[in-house]
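User: Hi! I'm working on a homework problem where we have to compare a predicted structure to a textbook description. Could you give me the structure for the chain below?
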Amino acid sequence: MTYYRNIFLFLFLLALPWQTRWIVEDVLMQMEVTQYGRLSFYVFDIALLVFFTLSIRAIRQQACSWTRQSLTRRVALSAIAVLTGGSLLSVFWSLESHVAVFAAVHMLLAAGLFAVLVLDKEISPDFVLTGFVAGMLVPSVLGWMQSAQQFIGASTLLGIASQDPLILGTSVIEHAQGRWLRAYGSFPHPNIFGGFLAFGLVAVMGVVGRAKWSVSNAVLWLAAVLMGGALVMSASRGAWLAAFLGVGVLLVGLGVTKQRLVLRRIQKPLLLTLMVILIVSASLGSILVTRFDVSNRLETQSVTERVDQWRDVKDLSLQSARSFFFGTGIGNTVFALEEMRPLRRAWVYQPVHNFFGLVFVELGILGLLIVLGLIATTDWLTHRHWNQLSAVLSLALGGVVFVLACTDHYLWTQPSGLYLLAIFLALKLRLGEAAALTEHGNK
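Assistant: Happy to help. Predicted structure tokens:
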């Protein structure tokens, strides 16, 4: 049974970057389609459900003893259970209950993923990270191709929408020579693509450095090189910062804890990846530098919109006591904005580009406190045993996710992003436990 369980977990990780889905319903806004009202089930949802089914027996056998041994594990599981329950309850006061139901169901699936990864001790963190890296191989190749072709063809089977840099609404960089299409990979937006790549880069360095999972180094090195180049082509500033911080924390942590063998293992793939990043950056230098040009129209618009979104957070959360404590309802931010400021185009209504701000709006201060408690709990052992290799990797992955959470909303609004967050929190708890065991064993 363990064999089949691992197969479907690996299939889920391979499918996670792909947006192939069944669109059940479109909840319209001003008679227009909005991506936040497109109710869907994804191909990775199916793989996840099969994985859950195969995991039931193992969880029943391990859950009681495995949770009884750890207060941290019990608190984390309780926190995510309360968070999921609050999400389901928010359906009753949401403006668009159908949207809230689908968002709550994906929250329930994410909570289940977290629970299984925490409780099933037969699942190795390195196996999960390896599967995630393997899943990003093909999307990374797509990113290279899209950047070279400057066009993305639609594919219903792969869940990829057509993108033409000449059409307004496409994510591009405007520069002196025209409009340059940012790489989407297999994702609905370059920022999501970049965020997954940043997490994958730190993950691949962790797997190579720890050398605990039997996988070809050549494949891992290739994955690092492809992801590094694709990260540049995604032109996501948040993802660039996330990757820089994550790799930086990893290197500094390994240096401080004197993990010389691990540093030697990652030296070559890291230098090779850095070389590719520098070559791609140099070839696109005049285009990429525009991302930091405050006088550029699109860049100014992007910054202005993100600043203005904090006014939306304030207005939505303070419009009533219920909104402050319980929120607008999961998945309902844009519909609450439409009610507050009606008669605008659907694409104008956007969630705040900040995970914590968005949770505050949708689940209120109580929901935000639960999320912060969950994060603190999963992080507890990592910081207490920071001088162990497992904790260093956990901190590096945490650096990536923290930046992504502060600069965008897809860790909450996109099912794939929500699952990535669940994977990260579960691995953070498991890596912290491994660090604690290692330190206690050395005493």
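For your comparison, note the following. The mean pLDDT is 93. The beta strands are 21-26, 38-42, 172-175, 178-181. Good luck with the assignment!
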